[in-house]
Each structure stands twice: as C-alpha cells, then as structure tokens.
Amino acid sequence: MRIIQLNEDSRKDLLENLLKRSPNHYEEYSDRVMNILNRVRKEGDQALFDYTSRFDKVQLTRDNIRVTEEEVQEAYEAVDPALLEVLRKALTNIRSYHEKQRRYSWFDSSAQGTLLGQKITPLASCGVYVPGGKAVYPSSVLMNIIPAQVAGVEQIIMTTPPGKDGKISSNTLVAAWEAGVREIYKAGGAQAIAALAFGTESIPKVDKIVGPGNIYVALAKKAVFGYVSIDSIAGPSEILVLADETANPRYVAADLLSQAEHDEMASAILVTTSRDLAERVSREVDLFVEQLSRKEIITRSLEQYGYILVAEDLNGAIDAANEIASEHLEIITRDPFYVMTKIKNAGAIFLGEYASEPLGDYFAGPNHVLPTNGTAKFFSPLSVDDFIKKSSIVYYAKEALAPIHKDIETFAKAEQLTAHANSIAVRFEQE
β-pairing, 267-272 with 208-210? Predict the structure, then answer.
C-alpha cells in the first residue's frame, strides 16, 4: 500500500479522490435509470417482467413473481445448518440492540390548561431491497428488516433479483423468513425500485425503500425520493483504521482488507502516528493479498483507494479521521476510549484490537447500514427512527389562550398575515 505523509495537500488530494466514488458522480447512468422508472410507472407489471427478462434472463408472470412457501421450504433444505444457527444468534443480537432504540409518544400538560406532546407512529409499509449478483449478503437482510419490525411497520416487502434458474438465493430467502418477512418478490435493479415506489399489479407501493444495491439501484432510489422515503444513497464500502505504535500490524492489515475485498471501488485507509507501523502494515497487506480468494478485487481497490497516512501526532490523526468521516472507523491505540471521545464523524466506531469491523457486519447487534462518502458528517446508521413518524400535539384551553392571544395576533400582523391574526382574534371577539 502507498504510504503518504499527512499534510494539508495530501489530505485534500485524498478527499477529492474518495469523492469520485460517490453515486452523485455517475450521472451518465441517470437517463437509463429514468427511462426504466418512467416505463414501470406507466406500464406496471408488463415493464417489470420485460426488464427482468432482459437483465436477469428470467421469465416472470403474476403467477411466479412472488416467492411461495414451497420455495422457502426448498431454501431451508438447502441452507447450511451451521449458517442457520449463526443467523438465529445474530438475529437475536440485532433485535436486542434495536429494541433499545424504540421511541414512545410523550405528553406534557400544565395547570394553565395546555398540553403539548409528540405522537410516534410507525410507517405503514416499507420495501427492503436485497442485491443479487456477485455476492449474497443475508446479514444485510437482517439489518434492514429488524429495525422496521421493532418500529412496528405492519407491511414489510422484500424484493431481490432472481438467478438465471428463476430462484432466490437460499441464504437470502432463509434470512428473510427468519426475520419474519412473508412477502418476497423476484425483482431487482432500478425496475424493482420503481415497482416499490409506484406500485404495479403484482407489487404494492410502499412508504419507504431501504437496502443497498448497484449504481442503478442507488440512482433509482435517489430519483424516487419524494414519492417515497428512502434510507440513503449508499456508496462503496470503506474503512479507516486509526492506530498508534501499540497496534498489531497483522490485525490492522487484515482489517483493511476486510473492506477492500467488497469491490474495486471500496476504500481502505490507515491513519497512524507511527512510520514503523505504516511500513509493517504495508508488508502484511502484501502477504495477505497473495492468500485471499478475491485477490484481483482487493488489488484494484488498494491501487485506487487504499492509503496509509502518517500523521505528525495523534491530534492530526484524529483531525484526518473526522475530515474523512468514514463508514467504519476502527480505533486501535493505547487508549481507544479517549480517542473515541474526540471523534465527531463516523458511521460505526470499533474500539480496541478485538473489535474488528466484521464483528459489526454480522453479529454484535448495531446496524451495519451506514453512511458512506463522508456523509457521516450529517447522516446516521439505519435505525428504528428510520421507520417512524413524529406528529406534534398541541392543546390549549380557552383559559390558557386568553392571556397570550394578543401576542400571537401581534406576531401574525408583523408578518402581514392578517388571516392568521384573525383566526386567533375571532375566538375573543365577544369580549
């Protein structure tokens, strides 16, 4: 991996390079995506089935687009029993974590005759998109479904592209069934996002769409935002390890590669205060790459977006981590808990040498759907909050409104909104 001394110029160059990975920089695909969205919106199932035939080489009809219980049973027979056991353990951890995020309505009354509050209501429906293709991620199935369930969403629909045999991956199907989803459709790509956003004869419209996907899916979600809500526009995966001289270089190298293997656009960055650690990690990376199954993807990822940055001191390293605002941030320093208090921008923070990023991906419980491409500066991980609505509650008795009604009228008149003022004044016109 390239080793660079961290300074203002190198940090600026790095940030500009990382931003090239954002879905916002792939507008050349937008016209194709919009054509798909518009056609599905207009033609419904006919367009959905046509695109599935063209892109997935599968002939869908209203009779076979929805996964049957027989197909689910086949999936259970095919899935590795050891994986099923792990899925159930992970599901328990994920549900337990998200139950602590649950919000409740609240009301605050006063002796003067007022009641103010906030009413929490779950969304009525949501669609969970699950990618197919190069890799299958049953962990993402759990991470997207469980917070919606905990929030109380009544209708959770899942769509995922079928394989050329017309079937869904057994691991994906079993994960969804274990998580409690009973409405699963064989549809992928921008056409599936269109179906969820606008509805077709087979797939009902939902209120929110969540889940990762390729550039077509990302741009489709961006385009339908406003017709429905979405979780985020997900970019390629990324990890930043912030380490000092106490870190184990072999652990650090292994953790960097855990994200570089996702795809050629993934980013893996080490920020360290130790030149010696930087050089040792670079050597360990080279050794690991030769052994790992996704060598070509890892190599391409590191060539484009892999960096080892050497900072003058710990404060400089922390500043860089906050500026990069990585999806995953590992802190492997002498006192990781102190460093954590200085971190302002990160999707998920992993503390110490035994809290490696895959622990969060699969098992610990916090959600692994995280902000990417620097958006951790203003976005948060997927949570129960993403599946609820908040309504403000206002009640005033006449006795509470009487002493302040002229104040409100004055405010309204200052904005030249006389109908607003009248709406208050009319209640006291007999006095």
Answer: unpaired
Q: Tell how far CA 371 is from the center of its chain.
A: 6
Q: One-letter amino acid identity for 163? A: G
CB-based contacts of 49, cutoff 8 Å, min separation 6:
59, 60, 61, 65
List, in order, residues 6 or more apart from 290 with CB less than 8 Å away.
none
Residue count (the chain): 431
| First-to-last C-alpha distance (Å) of the chain | 80
pLDDT per residue as tens digits for the range 60-113:
999 999 999 999 999 999 999 999 999 999 999 999 999 999 999 999 999 999
Q: 330 and 350 in contact (C-beta within 8 Å)?
A: yes
141-154 per-position pLDDT tens digit: 999 999 999 999 99
Could you list the beta-strand ranges (E) of 173-247.
Answer: 183-186, 208-210, 229-230, 238-243
Is the Cβ–Cβ distance between 269 and 11 less than 8 Å?
A: no
- The pLDDT tens digits for 334-352 are 999 999 999 999 999 999 9
Q: Which residue has the higher pLDDT, 185 or 135?
A: 185
Which two three-digit tokens encode residue 94? Answer: 């994920």
Two structure tokens written together for 62: 């209203």
This prediction has a pTM of 0.92
State the DSSP H helix or E strand holding residue 71, giving kind and residue range, or none if neither.
Answer: helix 69-78
Taking CB atoms within 8 Å and a gap of at least 24, the contacts of 356-362 are 356/251, 356/254, 356/255, 356/258, 356/330, 357/239, 357/255, 357/258, 357/259, 357/328, 357/330, 358/258, 360/328, 361/139, 362/86, 362/90, 362/139
Question: What pLDDT digit, counting tens, does each position of 349-381 carry?
Answer: 999 999 999 999 999 999 999 999 899 999 999
Kindly report the backbone phi and psi dihedral angles of residue 215, in degrees, each rounded to the nearest multiple of 5, phi listed first. Answer: -65, -35
Residue 220 CA to residue 188 CA, distance in Å, equals: 11
- Distance between CA 309 and CA 242 in Å, rounded? 10
Tell the residue number behind the tokens 């792939």, with chain if given.
26
Q: Which residues are catalytic?
A: 327-328
Q: Which residue has the tokens 């129960």?
A: 384
CA pair distance 314, 323, nearest whole angstrom: 14
CA 184, CA 145: separation in Å to the nearest integer? 12
Q: For residue 380, what are its two tokens?
A: 């948060």
